[in-house]
Amino acid sequence: MDLSTLRGTHPRRQQKRVGRGGKRGTTSGAGTKGQKSRAGASVRAGFRGGDNRIWQLFPKQRGASKKHGNKRPHRKHRFFALRNDRAAEVNLWSLDAFREGETVSPSTLAEKRLVPAGARDVKVLGSGALTRRLSFEGVRVSASAKEKIEKAGGTVSA
Fold first, then answer.
1. What is the pLDDT of residues 77-117, one digit of tens each?
2. How far apart are CA 39 and CA 50, in angstroms?
3. How many angstroms separate the Cα of 34 from the Cα of each of 26, 50, 81, 92?
4. Are 146 and 123 in contact (CB under 8 A)?
């Protein structure tokens, strides 16, 4: 058997030449003008017309921003709220899940699913009315919330 004598069973088909007139119109489906209509043109993946590629907009995982003693967020994060730095917020109207005389703490709030489990810091805000006498421990309280808690007969301990 000689490799030079092998022939395919199907005849070779000519490749369609696009953009040269013919039955498909003058542009042959390539559109009018612009980079992608030119012969041999291709746009690389991630190319944004000369602007930075999307993965270059965000900080790298290693490097100076991660070194010890540097607590500032990276400058590229100015568009995003850093969720971990904010306290979990609870309004007074959502505390109807507690019964009269119960203690409100980060652990009891997490049990009742009013804050995410493992929330480091919890702050009670004064939106709504408090109808029950509750005692608050280990949570931060806004001034308006403290006023409403004490008016309802509750206590706030730092």
1. 555 555 556 789 999 999 989 999 999 999 999 999 999 88
2. 21
3. 15, 15, 39, 59
4. no
**CATH number of the structural domain spanning residue 98:** 3.100.10.10
pLDDT digits (tens, 9 = 90+) for 123-146: 999 999 998 999 999 999 999 999
The domain tally of the chain equals: 1
Q: Which domain holds residue 135?
A: 84-157
Note whether residue 43 is domain-resident: no
How many CB atoms neighbour CB 133 within 10 A? 13
pLDDT at residue 58 greater than cutoff 60: yes
Only one residue has tokens 């994060």, namely: 77
Q: What gap in Å lies between CA 85 and CA 53, rounded to an integer?
A: 28
The count of residues in the chain is 158
Taking the C-alpha atoms of residue 128 and residue 145, their distance in angstroms, rounded to an integer, is: 9
